[in-house]
Amino acid sequence: AEAAAEQLQLYRRDPEGWRGCRSTGEVAVSWRPSSEFAGNLYKGQGILNASPQKVWECIKPVAGGLRTKWDQNVKDFEVIEAISDTVSICRTTTPSACMRVISPREFVDVVAIKQYEDGTMQSAATNVEHPLCPPQPNFVRGFNYPCGCFCIPVPG
């Protein structure tokens, strides 16, 4: 969990190589080649007219949280084991897509939640295997490299 959080901080601090691919008035999506796997990293950025605490309530990875209510790509989120107040093993499921051509997925990750002195909140996750969560029938087991979210306060 700590390694995933550190990797996300490195991505955040390194502005090199990011190329814009989509942008609206609210969100900009960028990508760059990954140094960890044969593929790309993606990041989305936007500024919301809300307090960091209200935004964090919408995105924080907790069982019973708001993410399953607004994110159509997250069907369910459950905590398999709480390691500490800030680290847990979690299972996320996604619905099928493209008229069921793409099967539902399940991801089992170790998730760390951090808060920094400047008020930034971070969730960081990466793939893990856990004996209490073997692959489930009717789901394809997905694999996450280090991933997550930042909620960064901005002045005003």
TrEMBL record:
InterPro entries: StARD5/6, START-like_dom_sf, START_lipid-bd_dom. May be involved in the intracellular transport of sterols or other lipids. May bind cholesterol or other sterols. It comes from Alaudala cheleensis (Asian short-toed lark). Pfam families: START. GO terms for biological process: cholesterol import. PROSITE patterns: START. GO terms for molecular function: cholesterol binding; cholesterol transfer activity. The lineage of its organism: Eukaryota, Metazoa, Chordata, Craniata, Vertebrata. The gene is Stard5. Residues 1-156 form the START domain. This is STAR5 protein. Keywords: Lipid transport, Lipid-binding, Transport. It comes from the Eukaryota.
